[in-house]
Design goal:
423 residues; Rossmann fold; Arc Repressor Mutant, subunit A; 2 domains; 13 helices; binds adenosine-5'-diphosphate
Length: 423
Amino acid sequence: MTSTLPVPLPVANAVTTQTPRTVAAAQVVIDALVKQYDNLRALAGVSFTVQRGEWVALMGPSGSGKTTLINILGGLDTFTSGRISVDGVDLAKLSENEVVRYRAEKVGFVFQQFHLVPYLTALENVMLAQYFHSSTDEKQAVEALKRVGLGDRLGHVPAKLSGGEQQRVAIARALINQPKLILADEPTGNLDEANENIVLRIFRELHDAGHTILMVTHDPDIARQADRTIELAHGHLQFDSAQHGPGHPLHCPLANTGDCCTEPPSVTTVEDQIRFDHLLEQIWICSEEIKPALISQLRVEGPSGRLPLITDEPTKRVLTRMSEVALVKLRDDEAQLTPMGSIRARDVVRRHRLAERLFKDTFAIEDSEAHTQACKFEHIISPELDQRICTFLGHPTTCPHGKAIPPGTCCVNIRHDNSNGAK
Ligand code: ADP
């Protein structure tokens, strides 16, 4: 069922030594990317860059926008606004023909479903890809299949190959044009453990050979093999390991504390923290409800009324201070969360909804009172207490009103076991 990988994989642009990871120029630039489907915002202003040769794991619950992002990057889908460029090519400016050429020349796709033509052999499937790129070259196609350990399966049709072998044919096919960018959407999602290991080993070799890889995965163990993890939630960039120090784990337990390497130094007073948290929470809820967070509709005092001990300050002024410490970006009348703001907003929302669950379910406190108490409680729950409450409650996924409770480090594995959902 499985075979070994005899030959090192090809290097992008025929370079034969490992590409240094320190190259500065970003290969992929994504800036305020929005994808709107009627009244649904699949991507709500995502921004990040990817360096040449980087391996990025793209994570996030179902429906968070991962596939949409990969498809846009690969020129398979268009976007509503923002900017995206690959190797200096601005994708929005390409004509239809140029998009086809961009796909053929720069991008290699590997999907969860292998998308092989069922009546063609492994060799013919790879040669078909060659045909679309330029012209067929049987010797080169055989070499590509040998590189993924399938030299003895050239004449097999997909039905006679195992899932892992079919995926390796798909990888050989994706590599035929020496793509600068490999886009993989859950490439091991349909594989057993042995085949998953083989496919991951191929990706590691591609990475060592200098290819840039963006890989959607739900599996934290796979993500850990990448250089960097980016997490989406509700179309927002929720977490980017590149913005944390090298020692930070996937879900940084120090986020929101004075020890976090991304903590803005100029947030000083408790009052400021509370004001900021209330606004972050409201912006997060707007994105859940798929509507823009209009500055004119945000309120410093938060949903439960005026905050005790805190003097009034106009919303716009607080938001401006929040933008100075990189928690939000202000565009016209709209406030958007930055990656750091997203992390913090998620934590506040999580604490609030966990507290509501605790008050409602455990202490049988009625709905509106549970909400009011949660507004106060969310500011005093430490990360440790948050995890203990969550564990005590059995890692609930929704608050009493049915809204999603963002997962914490304590429930990530548990929720993944339960099919990755945030429901
Ligand atoms: P993920 O890959 O993270 O599961 P997707 O990118 O597939 O998420 O989807 C993001 C959101 O966009 C989801 O709510 C999904 O239902 C919606 N969506 C995706 N494609 C379409 C489409 N063609 N039309 C309308 N909504 C879509």
